[in-house]
């Protein structure tokens, strides 16, 4: 497992000689509402059973996920966080190469490396649209051309894409994905779509999210959707994620996941949290309000380009001489804050930072400090 992620508040607190609860962490993209109360109540009630093994079938969890997302139970497998499932996917046999987005989540490459699968980058390019709004362009045509060339060859590949992509928040276009999935299917190749942040996108309830590519798993046997619950339900310390795919792939993945991979407390929490529709509504409302506030506040600062957020995080490009991501982090450290320096994202560098969207008070504070840095 790579150690190049955000969210290490314990290390930061130790270095700053403060308590972890004093850290205001903008480096990890977690629901600003915090853990779901119904889930926490269920977790506390389940504590009496920690002297027993968890349900190895994950039956109740699978039923809750199936009901919430409108997916058949035999199209779901759960694991100890989305990361464990990425590693399981990369163990599927007879794949000779892979493509990952750049910039993109580093664990794709780590999982592929663990399975000795050669990997190439799919470079997303920063662009400005006709209205002056920045975005990252996905090279669909290049991907489709490559997929067409694969047909009839011996090699089988895995293509990873994020929806929304981390760290830039770019959403996939379903029409392009249909074309790409069909071409990859003709070449016996896989399309893996990481939807770890999809629940933050849009106004719809979770099963009706039109931005999700989950709707394509009945149409294409070669599409795998990776889904995280720890971001939206604010429990990265518990670890639970899922894969949605056709039943044959699900059976293969189950064989790579250890027994009792999902612990009894994570099971209890998620079963209860998934039944709380009010939490979903409040999360979406709060995040969308804070998206607007953060985008407007930071876009007003001369010397920063802000990429419009689609989920609970946003990407900033620093364009003022003398200011770097390191400098911003050093200043924010004095206020017990962390942001994500993007210098280890392929295709980015020390002029890029990613900010989680948090509660309003924290967002006001961090945007004010960043504004002062650029005024100095």
Automatic annotation (TrEMBL):
PROSITE patterns: AA_TRANSFER_CLASS_1. The keyword Glycosyltransferase does not apply. Residues 22-357 form the Aminotransferase class I/classII large domain. Signal peptide: none annotated. One of its GO terms (molecular function) is pyridoxal phosphate binding. Gene3D superfamilies: Aspartate Aminotransferase, domain 1, Type I PLP-dependent aspartate aminotransferase-like (Major domain). Keywords: Aminotransferase, Pyridoxal phosphate, Transferase. It comes from the Bacteria. Its cofactor is pyridoxal 5'-phosphate. It holds the Pfam family Aminotran_1_2. It is an enzyme of class 2 (transferase). Its EC number is 2.6.1.-. The keyword Metal-binding does not apply. PANTHER family: HISTIDINOL-PHOSPHATE AMINOTRANSFERASE-RELATED, THREONINE-PHOSPHATE DECARBOXYLASE. Belongs to the class-I pyridoxal-phosphate-dependent aminotransferase family. This is Aminotransferase.
């Amino acid at each position: 497992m790579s150690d190049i992620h955000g969210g290490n508040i314990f290390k930061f607190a130790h270095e700053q000689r403060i308590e972890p609860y004093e850290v205001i962490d903008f480096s990890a993209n977690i629901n600003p509402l915090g853990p779901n109360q119904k889930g926490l109540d269920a977790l506390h009630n389940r504590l009496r059973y920690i002297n027993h093994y968890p349900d190895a079938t994950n039956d109740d969890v699978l039923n809750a996920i199936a009901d919430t997302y409108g997916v058949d139970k035999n199209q779901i497998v759960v694991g100890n966080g989305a990361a464990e499932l990425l590693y399981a996917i990369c163990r599927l046999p007879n794949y000779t190469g892979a493509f990952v987005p750049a910039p993109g989540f580093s664990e794709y490459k780590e999982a592929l490396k663990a399975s000795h699968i050669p990997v190439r980058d799919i470079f997303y390019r920063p662009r400005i649209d006709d209205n002056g709004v920045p975005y990252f362009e996905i090279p669909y045509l290049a991907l489709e051309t490559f997929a067409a060339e694969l047909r009839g060859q011996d090699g089988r590949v895995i293509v990873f894409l994020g929806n929304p992509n981390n760290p830039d928040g770019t959403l996939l276009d379903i029409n392009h994905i249909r074309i790409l999935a069909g071409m990859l299917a003709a070449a016996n190749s896989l399309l893996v779509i990481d939807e770890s942040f999809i629940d933050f996108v849009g106004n719809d309830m979770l099963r009706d999210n039109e931005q999700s590519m989950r709707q394509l798993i009945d149409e294409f046997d070669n599409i795998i959707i990776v889904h995280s619950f720890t971001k939206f339900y604010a429990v990265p310390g518990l670890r639970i994620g899922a894969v949605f795919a056709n039943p044959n792939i699900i059976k293969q993945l189950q064989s790579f996941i250890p027994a009792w991979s999902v612990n009894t407390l994570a099971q209890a929490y998620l079963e209860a949290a998934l039944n709380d529709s009010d939490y979903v509504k409040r999360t979406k409302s709060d995040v969308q309000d804070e998206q607007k506030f953060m985008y407007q506040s930071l876009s007003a600062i001369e010397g920063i380009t802000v990429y419009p957020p689609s989920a609970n995080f946003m990407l900033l490009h620093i364009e003022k001489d003398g200011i770097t991501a390191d400098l911003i982090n050093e200043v924010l450290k004095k206020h017990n804050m962390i942001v994500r320096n993007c210098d280890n994202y392929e295709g980015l560098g020390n002029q890029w930072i990613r900010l989680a969207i948090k509660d309003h008070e924290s967002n006001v504070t961090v945007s004010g400090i960043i504004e002062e840095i650029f005024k100095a």
